[in-house]
Amino acid sequence: MGRAIDVLLVVRLARPQKEERVKKTYTTSIAAKKIGVSFRTLNRWIALGKIKASQGIPLADGRKLWVWTDADIDRGRKVKAEQQPGPKPKRGKR
Asked: Counting CB atoms within 10 angstroms of each CB, which of 52, 53, 71, 89 has the fewest?
């Protein structure tokens, strides 16, 4: 009888609990849309070191595939809020 309880305990421990959730992840283009900026702007911020995704998966050709979580997107929204508008383009003579 003790053996059956031990096996049942192992089976229960091996199964994922209901509270455990897999983190939702996004591509860079979807993360940019959720932040409210263009894909190019988000890549520029990465290059400037203003933001970084939780995980970067190196690809064979030397690039990185960034994986974004909801926490990363929240940080991106904060970066966007801190941005100052750039200079207005000057109008040429007509």
From this structure: 89
Question: Is the full-model pTM beyond 0.85?
Answer: no
| Torsion angle of the four alpha carbons 35, 39, 43, 46, in this order, in degrees rounded to the nearest 10 | 10
Of 56, 51, 50, nearest in space to 71 by CA = 51
Per residue in 39-91, pLDDT (tens digit) is 999 999 999 999 998 898 998 999 889 999 999 999 999 999 998 888 888 87
Domains of the chain: 21-80 (1.10.1660.10)
